[in-house]
């Protein structure tokens, strides 16, 4: 197992365009960097569950069962549609307000990140295909090695997603995006949820 190669590969794969990057960017641009980081931490926390599931064979069971895999996919789509509807109904705060400073917002955004990651069928398949490539199947502790790699991957993802959140917040502040009305921002977030739902549907 070459750890440096694994870290480099993890960073590059995390930076690839996908639902997670899109969601972190959208939250950070419309609600500020704290919102983006909160979502990022939630997304990365979900990776620990995926790692354990892959190491214990649960992910393989889900991926090999059209019924179970379909359940995860459509549960994720239903959740995203629900969040989109909530975004459309949410009046939000005054334009330019830092809504992420609300004490309850971190927990809410964190839980949203966790739910999105756990209900993302792409992550299930990704971990099944990616992690075993760096694990010696003839080793004495392949499951432990896979768990360790999952922790490293999650740590890399935290760094990458945090950087994305900070960068998106900087761009948003330069463009004055959060001075747009709360109704418009809600529509933008709803559009992002819809786009991610389509990604889940056609993956």
Strand content: under 5%
Say how many strands there are.
Answer: 0
- Note the gap between the termini: 30 Å
Radius of gyration: 18 Å
Helix content: over 70%
SSE-based structural type: mainly alpha
Short key terms for the protein model shown above:
203 residues, mainly alpha, 9 helices, 0% strand
Written overview of the protein:
The structure is a single chain. The protein is mainly alpha-helical and 203 residues long. It has one domain. It contains 9 helices and no strands. Helix 2 packs antiparallel against helix 3 and helix 5 runs antiparallel to helix 9. It is globular and about 60 Å long.
Strand and helix layout:
Blueprint: H1 3-15, H2 19-31, H3 33-56, H4 58-64, H5 66-89, H6 103-118, H7 121-130, H8 142-175, H9 182-202
Helix pairs in contact: 1-8, 2-3, 2-8, 2-9, 3-6, 3-7, 3-8, 4-5, 4-7, 5-9
